[in-house]
Design brief:
By secondary structure, the chain is α/β, with parallel strands linked by helices. It contains 16 helices and 17 strands. Helices cover about 40% and strands about 15% of the residues.
Length: about 375
């Protein structure tokens, strides 16, 4: 028996492990069980947290690290990557949930945080000579429909008296128009990790609001405010995007980008193409190998266009088995199989509980990989 060739292509694990760290932990554990395994590490991202990090590792380019307005209005450092005349912008770097401590994720805060820093990153990219900006969506703390981003681009939301509205999505129900025409000056690509519309039971507020602190009342209020905002966007840009896939991404930031004419591309698909996932899987398929992917929580959202779906689909096209290692697993076997996943394993279950797994995320993931390798690691 000899070790099979393995491509290890995980996303980041929430706020605990970067994609690069997760790939390293999986490889370490796998090699403990199968020392002669040939492992290709390919950390990935689907537009959310880690988007810029994984792209820079493979593409190179110039990393810029400006200070921009964070979700609370305070400055945060938000890296973006320049490769030629293309800017890769990670929206979560400016307005990500990791900027909001868990104890501050309240209904009031959920309606007050802003995407203004994303607009400032786009201005910086344009000033650096970029003609195209690829914006990774996902992992945001915001539900402002991209209003903050537009304000930074010269098109602030105004109320009936002509006064600029406060930051956040809570007051967008009072918006009647924008203060001007957004000044972008670049071709835009919205790299989305989900396909949710802006409004309704599958929209930005209902699906993602609770993890940002919104309770039932706040979700209803934000959804109603975003409905008014959608009318304002349509009037200002001539594009009614409320029902378009990914309009609800990053708390409705997707809607603002689509209204500006952004082309939507799967974040996972874009990274798959730029980082050479298909070529890596071709090599694994030629040797009868295995694909491993993973993320913090393998749940129903994972099946809506996120990275695991892209990796599993690409592996299935080549007849390569795909195994998921995740912090938690709530997808049933039938649903997983339909997405091309042959097996899914939970780090928290293997460790005996969430608290135990969170005490040493890298060590727990490595231990799970060692366990799984004894089942899947030899040919």
């Amino acid at each position: 028996m000899r070790g099979v060739r393995v491509v290890v292509a995980p996303d980041s694990f929430g706020g605990t492990l970067s994609a690069r760290a997760a790939a390293g932990a999986i490889a370490e554990g796998w090699l403990r069980a199968v020392p002669d395994a040939r492992i290709d590490r390919l950390p990935l991202a689907d537009g959310g947290t880690g988007f810029v990090d994984v792209l820079q590792e493979r593409l190179g380019g110039a990393l810029h690290e400006p200070q921009v307005t964070g979700p609370f209005g305070d400055p945060v450092t938000a890296p973006w990557l320049q490769v030629g005349t293309t800017a890769y912008v990670e929206s979560a770097a400016a307005c990500g949930l990791h900027h909001v401590p868990r104890e501050r994720r309240t209904p009031d805060v959920a309606g007050r945080v802003t995407t203004r820093g994303v607009g400032e990153l786009l201005r910086a990219a344009r000033a650096a000579g970029c003609t195209e900006a690829v914006i990774g969506l996902g992992g945001s703390a915001t539900t402002d429909g991209g209003a903050g981003m537009l304000a930074a681009l010269g098109a602030a939301p105004l109320d009936a008296s002509g006064a600029e509205l406060p930051p956040g999505g809570a007051d967008l129900g009072r918006c009647v128009r924008l203060s001007g025409t957004p000044d972008v000056g670049m071709t835009l690509v919205a790299a989305a990790d989900v396909d949710n519309p802006l409004l309704g039971p599958h929209g930005a507020a209902a699906v993602f609001g609770p993890q940002k602190g919104a309770d039932e009342g706040a979700v209803a209020a934000l959804d109603a405010a975003l409905a008014v905002w959608a009318d304002v966007l349509a009037e200002a840009t001539g594009r009614d995007v409320r029902d378009e896939p990914a309009a609800g991404a990053a708390g409705g930031l997707g809607a603002a980008l689509l209204a500006l004419g952004a082309r939507r591309e799967s974040g996972a698909g874009l990274v798959r193409r730029l980082l050479g996932l298909d070529e890596a899987l071709d090599a694994v398929a030629a040797e009868g190998g295995l694909a491993i992917t993973g993320e913090g929580s393998f749940d129903w959202q994972s099946l809506r266009g996120k990275l695991i779906t892209a990796v599993a689909g690409a592996a299935a096209e080549r007849g390569v088995p795909c195994v998921v290692l995740a912090g938690q697993v709530s997808v049933g076997r039938r649903e997983a199989a339909a997405a091309g996943v042959d097996a899914a394993y939970s780090a928290s279950e293997h460790a005996g509980g969430i608290e135990a797994s969170m005490a040493d995320p890298a060590g727990t993931l490595a231990a799970l990989a060692e366990h799984v390798a004894r089942r899947w690691g030899s040919s």
